[in-house]
Amino acid sequence: MSGINDEKDRLIIEELSVTNRLFTDLTKAGSWVVNYAPDGSVAAVQWGDGFRRLMGYSDRSDFPDEIESFVRGIHPEDREVFIGDTTVNAFNEDIMCKKGYEFRFRRKDGSTRWFRSKGILYRDAEGKPVKFRGVTIEISREKELDTLYAQLQNESASLNTIHDSGGCLMSSGRLSKRRIRNLSRRQRISKAAEYC
């Protein structure tokens, strides 16, 4: 009888594993767990397989269950801020549950991508942190779109300046519409400043 239950359990675990991999691959998300010692220091870290794949690694041999595995990959410009923020705010559930932390990470293949991590802190009966369970998602495309939006906003502001300057240039009688159209954007702005 024990053999039947063992086989059922094995099949259930296998099916859950396949489902979990499908979920992490489709959502581009990976999970992790940080366990704390009674003094509040990090006792152990567990990186999920989906998290490893997200970061460009395959298993524990190339991305061990150590905090250093993760910190080493954080972009140098983000590392100090990220470590400082997580040290100061790691116990702030409001930040980790709502906003999370955004950072760049250098993957195994050398590419750098943007990620956001969010998590939930679990406490014992005395309120001391016991476990921090979270998820990390890739947000590189979101960051690219934010950059593109900012560029479009700047371009729009420049075009408004040019449009306003064009009226000034034409009203001064010094340049015709045709000449204004043939000027580069930089030349139009320069001429507008000169004539207005």
Give structural notes.
By secondary structure, the chain is of the alpha+beta class. The chain folds into 2 domains: 2-137, PAS domain (Beta-Lactamase, 2-Layer Sandwich), CATH 3.30.450; 146-195, no CATH class. The chain has 8 helices and 5 strands, in the order αββααααβββααα. The chain has a 5-stranded antiparallel beta sheet, sandwiched between helices. A hairpin with a 5-residue loop joins β4 (112-123) and β5. α6 crosses α8 (185-195). The longest helix has 32 residues, at 140-171. Mean pLDDT is 77; it is low at 169-173.
Quick take:
This protein has helices at 2-27, 49-54, 67-73, 76-89, 93-99, 140-171, 177-182, 185-195, and strands at residues 29-36, 42-47, 101-106, 112-123, 129-138. By secondary structure, it is of the alpha+beta class. It folds into two domains: 2-137, Beta-Lactamase, CATH 3.30.450.20; 146-195, no CATH class.
